[in-house]
Structure formats: structure tokens, C-alpha cells
Amino acid sequence: METRERGVLGLDLGRPPNLPRRRGEPAEVDLADIQGNVLRGYSYPVAAYIFLRIDDVERGKALLGRMLDRITTGEPWEGDGPPTAIQLAFTYTGLQRLGVPDSILGTFPEEFRQGMAARADVLGDRGPAAPERWEPGLGTGEAHVLVSVWAVDDAHLDAVREELRQVGADAGATTVVNETRAAALPAGHDHFGFYDGIAQPAVAGTGVAGRPGDGQPTGAGGWRDVAAGEFLLGYEDEDGGLPAAPDAPFDRNGTFMVYRKLAMDVPAFRRLLADAGSRYPGGAEMLAAKIVGRWRDGTPLCVSPDASDPETASDPSRVNDFSYADDPLGLKCPLGSHIRRANPRETEGFFNGLLTNRHRIIRRGRSYGPPLPEGAEDDGEERGLVFICFNVDFWRQFETIQSFWFDDGDVFGLGNDKDVLVGCCEDGERGKMTIPGHPPFFLSPQPRLVTMRGGEYLYQPSIGALRWLAGGAG
Amino acid sequence: MAARRRVAIGGAAALALGGGVGARRLKALDHNRHGTAYALTVFSPILPGHEEAVRGLIEALPKGTESPLARLEQLHFSRLHIFDELVYQGEPQKPDRLLSAYLVFTGSFDGGLDTFLDDLAERVGVDADEWWSHCVGYPGTADRAAFKRWIRNDQIPTALFACAHPNESVQDVRDALALRERVLEFAISAQGLEAAELKARFDSAFGDGR
User: Fold this and answer.
1) Does position A202 have pLDDT exceeding 60, yes or no?
2) Taking the model in full, what pTM does it have?
3) Residue A86: what pLDDT?
4) Do B191 and A415 touch (CB under 8 A)?
5) Is the pLDDT of residue B4 over 80?
6) In terms of CA atoms, which chain A residue is nearest residue B180?
7) CA neighbor of A444 nearest in space, from A263, A250, A333, A291
8) Set of chain B residues whose Cβ sits within 8 Å of the Cβ of A442
9) Residue A432: its chain B contacts at CB < 8 A?
């Protein structure tokens, strides 16, 4: 593979570590065997997340077999891509139901076998977010398969759903136990009004060049891609070995998936900004930016602490290119802001990012529910985010971020402070966020803004493993 | 830490030469102490066939404030675990087989070892007898002198341990945390006050030096 720059004399000058890698390298990972949504974020306007219970194993396998050639792979698209994309993932009870032998089932990690509901204590799913309050069909063991469908429009989405219904329900093979339709909001904003989904880890060996800020800090002001083995089984990880994986055929090109349906209380968020924003010297919009770590348009506070900067926000090479090294006290971007908690980069105590590189996740979230127009009264509608992420180790990656970085403040020197957006206070706790400044500002009390509505830990197999599950080979 | 290590090396070298200065230095160096914290490390061979019983016992022990060890107010941190085998971490790997599995007790605490063992026997005796009774030669806490001899016999020098607050007692740390909470509560409640009002409120909250 020849990717290095050559100088005028033909000498190999190497690639300075502070220059981002360029596009156009051949992929080292087996894109044709990987489901498409792992390494590519879909921009389809509509999607549906459909959890199926397998009622009849043989018919369920037959349905799986018929879907095989419809599953979107990670191969590059020519043009705009297909009008629909479909991916499949399985819960532990789903793999059991499909008859995966115990000798293989036992090699899956404990968190996956327990399922997300059993991890409620670790994840902070308490009170109104507790598993017994979740939507029907989730956290009970009856959700076996997650069929995720994206489409260019509702008609295409409905067609796939109808197909699923006919060959599934009519034949007695499967029953839909939970479903969420999700439509992209205008201008890529989430319900709280922020441009979302900006930061993703740059993954080595995928043939796609990472943007500055997406990978891991090199310690010399530059960025390097994150090893593929942090997100895909069967590849070298950041530790230089292969990640722990279940036995074949699940040991390669598969990954573990987190599904969390998070209701967002938009009126409560707007009340918080109006109320605390009237007391915060910087005003409501700056308070919103301090909570998140970015202005609403995505401009990082680290780049532009006093106001949003549309030029930065619209430049892919700059919108994520920043460091926390020159902001140890969080005077620009608070230590407890959402994005700094989610990925502390080279925040003091994280040794130039050496203590963040094994806690990265690929996020594939998508909003659901109707937007609430600015200034509108509470309409009582549920809206929020279907949070999805991929990692190879639930505990080391997603759960560490959720439990230690969002639901606690100790690691950042913030005591019991929790993330304002997704951290939730115990009963009787008022909660606060500390916004450093002279003087600092304490955002308190901290209302519940996000409530977990249900979720599952899933395994998303490779294309080959899907074929094996359907009984085609194995 | 680096300075302490240099003392250790210097001391040992001097001792090898038979120097009296080195011997005094070595005596001053306590492998089990960091600041005012003492670290106890005990490796006890598990009786053949008792491995699973003791594993089940320690896995079932409640953690945090419910742990029997939480009854020892001088305890910073403690851990009970089992060494099945030791794997050499370098290249090439060569597994070292132990003659038996070991029950390992580690703990860091304020004060001295003797007081700690007395408190352990008195407050955690029933639980400790359960887990250590699966180890070779354990006499039980009822015979206090024999218990202490047995612990010291299985004790190894800790040599390197981390203690977040080596110069503060556990009670000092608890007090400091409580004060931090009080200051934070005050800061939140006094947010935005004018200087005179702020001073008056501060004096009434902290003025008596509490």
C-alpha cells in the first residue's frame, strides 16, 4: 500500500503525524462481510427499528434466509446507494431461540448474556427509567431480533415493513414486539436543538480518511485513527491484540450493539435554559452551549468560546478539530459538559488520551417523535433519540462512558456531578453542574431531561454468520 | 516515589558493604507503610479441594458499606481474592505452576498492624474465620495470639502500593468530603448575592470556625 507523500527528489518524506490521512486507501477490513451501518452512518430520511419475537424457529430461520441478500454490507456504494437499507442484530435470547449451541453461547460476554435490563444499576436506569417501566417488549427476553430499516421515503419503508409482516406474522414465524419509527429532524438537529452526530471515531483500515479530531490525539498536536478492533471483532485493537470474541462464526466482522430509546423532555430543557439562563451571566444560549460543549450549530466551545462560528461549524476539517489540553480548568468547555464527558480526549489526568483510547464507541443515533416548535406549549407527545452504538466490549466501552463519565463526576474531579443531559439524579438529590468561571456558576437543581424508555444489548453478526444462523452453512 | 526507591537501593548497597549507615537506612524503610497508612498483604495457601468453597464465599460477600470489612473504620481499601496461577507477563510466556491456590488479603489502613489485627478479630472475626478456615494451618481468631502469629507468618512485604490520601486518616478524608459538600451547598445557595449579603451569609454559615 503506497500512501506516503514523495518529495520532488522521490524521497519518502513520510506523513507528518499532524497531517490528517487522506482519502482513497484500500480497506483492510472485510467490508463485504460487515453489516453496512457499523462503519457508515446512514443519511436516509426515515427509519424503523423493529424488534421481532421468533415464534417458530424453522420458519424464523427461513425468513432470515430470505432476507440474507437484502442485508446491506459495508461495501462502498456507487452513486446514492440503495433505496432501502436493512440490518439485523440479535439479543442473547434470540441466539438461544435460533438454536445456537450452548458451547458457543457460553463464549459470549457476560453483559450480553445478562441483557441490558440486568445492567440497570450500572447504567443508572433507575426510577422512571427502571426496566419495569420500559415499553412493552424490551428488557423482558421476548425481543429476539432487531430489524433496522432505513429508506429514502415512507413508501419504501412501508413496503419493507409489509414484507416483514407478510412473511413473518402471516406464516406464524415472528411477531413484532416493539417498534419505533424515526424520521430525521430538519437540518440534522436533535430535539434539544443541537446539531448532532458530529464526532465519530476515525476507524483504521476502513478506507475512509478520518477528519481531524475524530481519532485519538497523537500527543504531538495531531490525530491518528482508532484501531478497528475497538469496534469490530477479529481485528487488532488499541492494545495490539485481538479483542475477546465469542467462538466461530461470531468471532470476526461482528460487533456488539447498544440500543437505548431515550425520551427527551424538550419543555423541561427549555424551562431550564429560560430559568437558569436568566441568572447565568452569559445568558441562555451560552448556558446551553456550556451544557453540551458545543454551540447549537456544532461549533466547539474550545474553538470559539464566546459565540458560535458558522465557518467552523460548516467546515468538516475544523468542526471536530480541537483539544482540551489548553483548557485544563474547563473555562472554555466545562469539564462536566456533555461532549467532554463522552470523550475527554487529552483532558488532564487522561495522559494525552492514553486513557480514552479504549473507551470509544461508534454512535448511530436517530431522533424519533415530532419536533416541538420553538415557543410551543408542551404538547404531551413523546419524542427523543434512538441511541445506538457499536463496541466490542460493553463494559469497557459503552458502560464505562455511561456509568463513570456521564453518571458520576469523580473522574473529572467533579464529585457527584452527573451529566446534565443523560445523567439522572437519585431521589432526594438536587444535582448540579459546575460551569467554571470567575466566579463559577452552579446550575442547580438538575431536572430529569432524558428518560430511558427501553433497550437491549445485541450482537450484530457478520454476513457470513447471518448465513450460518439461517442454516445455509455451518 | 522515585526518591524513596533511590533510598532503598542506596540502603541495600551500603548494607552489602557491611556499612552501619546502610543498615540504619534500611531499618527506616518500611515496605508496608506510606505516610500514615499501613498496607497488609497476606498470601495464605488454600487447603487442597477447598478452592471452590472459598471462591463461592468471597464472591458472595457484600461489597461497599455492607461489606463485613466496612466495620473497620480505619480501613482505606481492602480486597480478598484468589491466586490460581501466576503467568509471567513478558516474552516468551512461561506459566509458573503454584503448589496450591492462595487466598490473598490486601488492605491499607490507618495506624499499626497489631491494632488492626485486634479490631479485625473482634469485629470481623466470624466472617474472617469463615474465609481463612479454608487455608492451611488457620487457628481461628478466638486464639488471638495464634491468629496474629498466623497472619504474620503468611504476610509478605507490600513494597509498592497506592494510597490516595497517605497522610490523612479515613476520618480526615470523610470530614474533608463533608466540608466540601457544605461549601458547595453554600456556594449554590449564595450564588449571585451582593458582597455585603454574601459576607453576612458566610459568617453565619462558617463564622464560628466550624
Assistant:
1) yes
2) 0.85
3) 97
4) no
5) no
6) A415
7) A291
8) 184, 187-188, 191
9) 184, 188
